[in-house]
Design a protein that fits this description.
Elements (H helix, E strand, L loop, with lengths): L21 E6 L8 E6 L2 E4 H6 L20 H5 L2 H15 L4 H4 L2 H7 E3 L3 E4 L7 E4 L3 H12 L15 E4 L4 E3 L4 E2 L2 E4 L8 E4 L3 E2 L2 E7 L18 E12 H7 L9 E5 L4 E2 H4 L3 E2 L19 E2 L2 E7 L7 E7 L7 H9 L10 E3 L14 H4 L7 E3 L2 E3 L7 E9 L4 E12 L7
Parallel strand pairs: 6-21, 8-15, 9-25
Antiparallel strand pairs: 1-2, 1-5, 2-3, 3-4, 6-7, 10-11, 12-14, 13-14, 13-21, 14-15, 14-16, 17-18, 19-20, 19-24, 22-23, 24-25
């Protein structure tokens, strides 16, 4: 039997009492109001600043803290797992159907429980740095076959370390933000100059991302056995990729103008995901000692990608994958990131890379689905090789408990035309 809240939660809700994901919101009123921190419960958002102002966070770590009177979650994340557990226990108790403190306080309920359709969701954290990994073996192999052929699809280093590149954090946007078609250079044809203009091969990438908690000091690494305590939770992520721009610009240093990034608004904590822990793929060869984990786990998070073509109301499911397919775990990713003393900070974003599965219906991007444009994807009478203006991508993820769900909501974005040439 699942936990029961006095707030009505439907059976298919992503946000029951077992979940309680964190986010930042503001009311959809004239002027918008100030950002506030909150958790999702059913179709409502619990305003944590109102709960804090009422003195209901009365545990030793949070009683005098101002962490929920902030426009972001960064200060709360800095406090670490003991504070996160204290907050979770307090919120679960306050929202339980047999706890009268909030349930029977009509004025506080009205002030603190806001219908989710009456708030605007914002980026939940100030993202100081963003790193994107490349941790799905199926995606890595498929890309290698497409670009290098079947004889050597995965480079030798990939099985020894979580490959990654640094991205630009300032352009990470929240779900629902339109994505402007990127412009840049593409491969020259023959002896011509490189192509310049809007990308002709815009793609989505099904990813998730870890949100860093306390982080580490410059010059001190985080041991892989302690990495779990430095990850607050996960969000859905779409790392939009202009494949033609990326292919021309990434040699030898990696993607630049060919990338844009969208994340979902709710951070689902590792505590909420704990019941869905599972074994990762077997790692062969054995990782070096600094990446060897005694507690080596992934999470069973079913993921879907829906595609809504321009001008259509109906979206089609085109991908069903799962977080559990990642070869390198999020704790290994974090430990590797800090092994040379790189200082991660609260709110930093660590993307997993495209999460593809072993089947044809579990591929995590159009590059794989259409085999770099060689095949067409059929969508309710429309056909695509890559994204066109007006197309919308919807990513969702939800864990299935015995009688409840722990979900992430959605991560959405619609493509709008490229910026016009300067006159």
């Amino acid at each position: 039997m699942g936990l029961k809240s006095f707030v009505e939660v439907s059976a298919d809700s992503h946000f029951p009492l077992e979940n309680l994901p964190y986010g930042v919101f503001r009311p959809k009123t004239a002027g918008g109001g100030d950002p506030s921190t909150g958790v999702a419960i059913g179709d409502y958002v619990l305003d944590l600043s109102a709960i804090a102002a009422a003195g209901l966070f009365d545990g030793p770590l949070l009683k005098k803290s101002q962490c929920f009177n902030q426009p972001s979650l960064n200060l709360f994340l800095e406090m670490g797992r003991p504070a996160w557990k204290e907050a979770r226990a307090t919120i679960q108790k306050l929202l339980s159907d047999d706890e009268p403190t909030l349930r029977d306080n009509i004025s506080l309920r009205k002030k603190s429980l806001l219908p989710s359709n009456e708030v605007e969701m914002l980026l939940p954290v100030v993202i100081g740095d963003y790193t994107d990994f490349f941790c799905s073996m199926y995606h890595t192999r498929n890309c290698g076959i497409i670009f290098r052929g079947p004889d050597n699809p995965i480079m030798p280093n990939w099985f020894h370390l979580p490959v990654a590149y640094h991205g630009r954090a300032s352009s990470v946007v929240i779900s629902g933000t339109n994505i402007i078609r990127p412009r840049g250079q593409g491969h020259p044809i023959g002896s011509s100059s490189p192509y310049f203009g809007p990308t002709k091969k815009l793609d989505f990438e099904l990813e998730m991302a870890a949100i860093v908690g306390p982080g580490n000091q410059l010059g001190k690494n985080i041991d892989v056995s302690e990495a779990y305590d430095h990850i607050f939770g996960l969000v859905l992520m779409n790392d939009w990729s202009a494949r033609d721009i990326q292919a021309w610009e990434y040699v030898p240093l990696g993607p630049f103008l060919g990338k844009s990034t969208t994340i979902s608004p709710w951070i689902v904590t590792l505590d909420a995901l704990e019941p869905f822990a599972c074994d990762p793929p077997k790692q062969d060869p054995q990782p070096l000692s600094y990446l060897a984990e005694k507690k080596h786990i992934n999470y069973d998070i079913p993921l879907e990608v829906l595609f809504k073509p321009a001008g259509q109301e109906q979206a089609s499911v085109i991908t069903k994958s799962n977080f559990k397919h990642l070869y390198w775990t999020i704790t290994q990713q974090l430990a590797h990131h800090t092994i040379n003393g790189c200082n991660l900070r609260s709110g930093d974003l660590l993307g997993t890379g495209t999460i593809s599965g072993p089947e044809n219906d579990s591929l995590g991007c159009l590059l794989e689905i259409t085999w770099n444009g060689q095949n067409q994807l059929s969508l309710n009478g429309s056909a695509r090789t890559f994204l066109e203006d007006g197309d919308e991508i919807i990513i969702t993820g939800c864990c299935e408990g015995p009688d409840y769900k722990v979900g992430f909501g959605t991560c959405t974005g619609k493509i709008i035309p490229a910026i016009l040439e300067d006159k």
